Amino acid sequence: MAVLQQELTLGEAADQLARALPGHRVEILQGRLTATPPPDGSHGLSLTKFCRALERAGIAESGAERIQGVGLWLPALPADFAIPDLSIVDEDFRDACVTKNHYAPNVFRLVVEITSSDWSDDLGPKVECYAQAGIPASLVVDRKRDEVLLHTEPAEGKYPGPQRFKRGQDVALPESVGVHVELSVDTLLDD
How far apart are CA 8 and CA 82, in angstroms? Predict the structure, then answer.
């Protein structure tokens, strides 16, 4: 019996992998296909508390929306896309759909990553991709190193060095978010 082999594009391979691994987050970062297992409960609680703070601050009335797990098209390479843990986007973000469920970077105000088993991607390639895409701010809750990193104001495809926040401190979200929010580093790290 003859076996036919078909070469897949990176996008087709990502689609197949997503179907084969339900619940995993499949992304293409810098031309590399990644699959991350579902997050743990502490990860989910950190996101929930983050979202509650945004709601209390009036995010819905600010012209922005908070959304988990939405695709962000990354323009550096044709097939690249990321799925941040949480995004603050313009309320009309759906008008900026580039392909499938991936939206143009110009509607993103802030992306949030909470490190899990894929911590090296969250701290390296994703931050680089977000800067290249011109995302105004990227917040990384680094549970491995017990700190929160805030990257802002990308220039020429790079963020300057991050602001680092340790336990006992609060991190104020940048103005690009559209509401004033201060979050306890301890709360973000402990859940």
Answer: 20
- DSSP secondary-structure letter at 37? P
* 6 burial type by CB count under 10 A (0-12 exposed, 13-18 middle, 19+ buried): exposed
Q: Give yes or no for a contact between 105 and 87, defined as CB atoms under 8 angstroms apart.
A: no
Enter the pTM of the model.
0.91
What three-state secondary structure class fits 29? strand
Please give the full DSSP string across 73-115, using - where no structure is assigned: E-TTSTT-EE--SEEEEETTGGGGEEETTEE-GGGEEEEEEE-
pLDDT digits 0-9 by tens, 47-95: 999 999 999 999 989 999 999 999 999 998 889 999 999 999 999 999 9
Q: How far is CA 146 from CA 69, 105, 130, 166, 168, in A?
A: 23, 29, 22, 7, 11
180 contacts 57 by C-beta, under 8 angstroms: yes
Residues 114 and 143 sit within 8 Å (Cβ to Cβ): yes
